Automatic annotation (TrEMBL):
This is ATP-binding cassette domain-containing protein. PROSITE patterns: ABC_TRANSPORTER_1, ABC_TRANSPORTER_2. Belongs to the ABC transporter superfamily. It comes from the Bacteria. Gene3D superfamilies: P-loop containing nucleotide triphosphate hydrolases (3.40.50.300). Residues 246-276 are annotated as: Disordered. Residues 1-222 form the ABC transporter domain. Signal peptide: none annotated. Keywords: ATP-binding, Nucleotide-binding, Transport.
């Protein structure tokens, strides 16, 4: 069981950070909303409808991934998959509209200078900027982000998170943002959903990111400190080992190692219940 009796409603224009150790169900929550994973109990809704693959109201931004050498895909091709990657065949009018949407999305993220280059020649930050464009090209009402800042340098993290925040402020797009490190997005976050061993807590960052709350969730001593406006989550002795195994760590303190989710780390377990 990943979680049960999770009752979460995301308002228009709200930014929610989803935190927790490896295997706590963060990615599984997104898979439920993407229509890729069913619930054993309860229900999930996107705009009042059941989640399904290719839902036009959902945009999805994955982790930055290395592009295999030899993959013949340009940035414009990647963004175009957000328009018609789920279907075949477009008429002449449809092709013109597709080109217009792709060009507009690329302009929105400021990627015009490199969008026609092969993906393999781009930096991780440039690739991720185009993945943001791909997610936004369909004008989604909800943006699901699965560790989109992972492996990016600080400047690219700020750029990508800023693009996501601008989208939600300008268009009222709701954002569900899975991450291991809250500091790059801390000024943007309205609420935090913290998942640990089937338990959870929902609230503002000041309500959730406290020593008392995280100690209760982890059932061990956890200290939450503020250092120069940044949150640092630490333990001592055996507690530090437990946090390391669970995947918790200093949130965004420069030079502090973190343990990212391995691919599919929680995808093989079935969530018990959720309402979104």
């Amino acid at each position: 069981m990943l979680w049960r009796e999770l009752d979460l409603s995301v308002a228009r224009g709200e930014f929610i950070a989803v935190l927790g150790p490896n295997g706590s169900g963060k990615t599984s929550l997104l898979r439920v909303l993407l229509g890729q994973l069913g619930l054993s109990a309860g229900r999930a809704r996107i705009g009042g409808a059941e989640p399904r693959a290719g839902h036009p109201d959902i945009g999805y931004i994955p982790q930055q991934r290395t592009i295999d050498a030899g993959v013949q895909l340009r940035g414009t091709d990647l963004v175009g998959l957000g328009v018609d990657g789920h279907r075949w065949g477009l008429g002449l009018r449809g092709r013109a509209e597709r080109r217009r949407k792709v060009a507009a999305a690329i302009a929105d993220v400021g990627a015009e200078k490199f969008a026609r280059a092969p993906l393999e020649s781009m930096s991780g930050g440039e690739q991720q900027r185009l993945r943001v464009a791909q997610a936004l090209v369909g004008d989604p009402a909800v943006l699901l982000c699965d560790e989109p800042l992972l492996s990016l340098d600080l400047a690219s993290q700020q750029l990508v998170s800023g693009l996501i925040d601008r989208r939600r402020r300008d268009h009222g797009t709701a954002v569900l943002f899975v991450t291991h490190e809250i500091n790059p997005i801390l000024p943007l976050v309205d609420r935090v959903l913290y998942l640990v061993d089937g338990k959870f807590r929902i609230g503002t960052p000041d309500e959730v990111m406290t020593s008392a709350v995280l100690s209760e969730l982890y059932q061990t001593d956890v200290d939450v400190l503020r250092v120069r406006g940044r949150l640092v989550v630490v333990g001592t002795g055996d507690t530090m080992d437990a946090l390391g195994t669970a995947g918790a760590h200093c949130h965004g303190d420069p030079g502090t190692p973190h343990i990212p989710d391995p691919a599919g780390s929680d995808s093989g377990r079935q969530p018990r219940q959720a309402h979104t």
